[in-house]
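User: quick one, sequence for these tokens?
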């Protein structure tokens, strides 16, 4: 229970800090959310959307799943996207992967991970599409890095081809990869209007 109590203590300290800086901080935030960005990232605890982009609550609408998979049949992701586009009027959709992604590594192995195999299949499909390019890379780390990039690229292309974005062509879809080793984001795909 100790670590849970710590979370509540830290929460109080954080809320007090915010109120000390701006007495109206929470009142303003509670009133409206107008984020410019939808972030689709990996659930990995080392890649928190707000922290790595130095953004505040209210600035980014966030969806995260294992290995930032974009599947146009995923009702969870599609609902998030629809809400972000039609109601929040986001201007940018960011698909952000990261090097050293455990989900990508798992998908690239021949091991079985129980229920997760259904999810990992979506990454295996990306691999199958680019098998000759990916499998030609001898070094395992480089091969996995390539897959991280291809998975992001596939996500960007799927979003760009979706009915939702075709109907809202001013939205810019970006494909980025975050490097755990230095905290830097890299542009991989997208970034232009369709
Ligand atoms: Co990951």
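Assistant:
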């Amino acid at each position: 229970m100790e670590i849970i109590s710590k979370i509540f203590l830290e929460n109080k300290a954080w809320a007090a800090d915010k109120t000390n800086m701006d007495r109206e901080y929470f009142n303003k935030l509670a009133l409206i959310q107008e984020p410019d960005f939808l972030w689709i990232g990996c659930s990995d605890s080392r890649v928190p959307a707000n922290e790595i982009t130095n953004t505040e609550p209210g600035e980014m609408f966030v969806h995260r799943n294992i290995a930032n998979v974009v599947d146009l049949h995923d009702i969870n992701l599609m609902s998030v996207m629809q809400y972000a586009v039609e109601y929040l009027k986001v201007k940018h959709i960011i698909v952000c992967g990261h090097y050293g992604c455990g989900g990508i590594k798992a998908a690239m192995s021949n091991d079985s991970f129980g229920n997760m195999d259904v999810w990992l299949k979506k990454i295996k499909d990306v691999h199958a599409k680019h098998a000759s390019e990916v499998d030609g890379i001898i070094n395992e780390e480089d091969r996995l890095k390539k897959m991280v990039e291809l998975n992001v690229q596939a996500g960007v292309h799927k979003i760009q081809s979706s009915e939702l974005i075709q109907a809202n062509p001013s939205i810019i879809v970006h494909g980025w990869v975050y490097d755990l080793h230095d905290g830097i984001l890299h542009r991989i795909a997208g970034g232009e209007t369709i």
